[in-house]
Amino acid sequence: MPAQGTPSSKGQEIQRTFDRITGYYDLMNRLMTLGRHAAWCREVAAGAEVPPGGSMLDIATGTGVIALAARERYPNSTVHAVDFSERMLAAAAGKPGASAIRWQQADANDLPFGDESFDAVTHGYLLRNVENVEHVLEEQYRVLRPGGRVVMLETCPPRGPLRHPVELGVRVVIPLLGQVVARDRQSYAYLQESTLGFMTPQEVSEILRRVGFSSVAWRKRFLGTHMIISAEKR
Ligand SMILES: C[S@@+](CC[C@H](N)C(=O)[O-])C[C@H]1O[C@@H](n2cnc3c(N)ncnc32)[C@H](O)[C@@H]1O
User: Fold this and answer.
1) Can you say which residues are annotated as belonging to the binding site for S-adenosyl-L-methionine?
2) I need a surface site. Which of 62, 130, 132, 200 has the fewest CB within 10 A?
3) In the chain, which stretches have pLDDT less than 70?
4) What residues bind S-adenosyl-L-methionine, as annotated (predicted)?
C-alpha cells in the first residue's frame, strides 16, 4: 500500500539511508548493542499492555523486531506495523511469524489511520529521525484510544561520570562497525550523530505531557545511552 503524502526532503534522505542499510541492519544492531536490542524490544512490547482482542501499532518498525515481539506476546490481538522504507518493510515481512502482522508503508508524520484506532502504539529509534517530535507524538495521541499506551525505545545522550568515555566509544565504534561490516561509514556516521544529539528523557517527557499524555515514566539502559519511555492517553 502506498504511503500517504510524501516525506519532507530530510525525510526522503533518511528513507534512502535506511533503504541502503537494510541488509546489514539486524547484524549491526546486534553488534552495536552487544545483543541487547531484542530484549529491549520485548520490554517495549510488554509495556504496551495490549488487551486481549485489542490492537496495536508499531511505527518505524524497520525489520519488525518490536512488532514480532508484540505478536508473540499478544497472540489474540491485531498488530499493525508501518515504516516509510519499503526495503525495511520487505525484510520484516520475510521473517518467521511475519504473516500474522499487517505491514504497511506509511510516514509517522501522517498516519493513515482514523482517530482512536489503537489500544497501544510502540516505536523504536523513531523520534531521533523526525523533524518535529511534537507533531509525531500528536499523531500517535490521535490514533490512540483513551486509556491507550505509547511505549518507545530511543537513544539518549549519556550523562554523568561515564559521559565522555561512552561518547568516545559511540563516536569511534559505530562508524568503525559501519565501515567494517556494512562498508558504509557515511550511514553509520549519521546514526552516531543522531544517537549523541537526541533529547534527554526529561525533554521527551515534557513534550509528551504537552501533547496531553499522562503517567509518563522512563528508564535508562546500556550505560545511559538508551531509554524506554511510556505514557498513557487520558
Ligand atoms: C533505526 S530504525 C528502527 C527500526 C526498529 N524500530 C528497531 O527498533 O529496530 C528506524 C526506522 O525508522 C524509519 N523511519 C524514520 N523516520 C520515519 C518516518 N517519518 N516515518 C516512518 N518511518 C520512519 C526508518 O525507515 C527505519 O526503518
Assistant:
1) 63, 83, 107-108
2) 132
3) 1-5
4) 63, 83, 107-108
Beta bridge partners of 56: 79, 120
Q: Which stretches of 125-212 are assigned E, i.e. beta strand?
A: 144-155
Residue 204: how many other CB atoms lie within 10 Å? 22
Q: Quick one: what percent of the chain has pLDDT higher than 90?
A: 66
Number of alpha carbons in the 13 Å side-chain half-sphere of residue 85: 25
What cell was used for 228? Answer: 524506554
C-beta of residue 226 within 8 angstroms of C-beta of residue 155: yes
Residue in the structure block whose three cell numbers are 482482542: 53
**Residue 1: what pLDDT?**
35
Phi-psi region at 55: left, alpha or beta (left = phi > 0; alpha = psi -120 to 50): beta
Strand ranges of the sheet holding 144-155, from the earlier edge strand across to the other edge: 102-105, 78-83, 55-59, 118-124, 144-155, 226-233, 213-221
Task: Enumerate the known binding-site residues.
Answer: 63, 83, 107-108
For residue 231, give the C-alpha cell. 505514557
How far is residue 215's CA from residue 234's CA, in Å, rounded to a whole number?
Answer: 9
Ligand 1 center to residue 8 CA distance, Å? 15
**Ligand 1: which residue has its CA nearest to atom 6?**
124
pLDDT value for 158: 83
Give the pLDDT score at 5: 60
Q: Which residues contact 179 (CB under 8 A, 6 or more apart)?
A: 185, 188
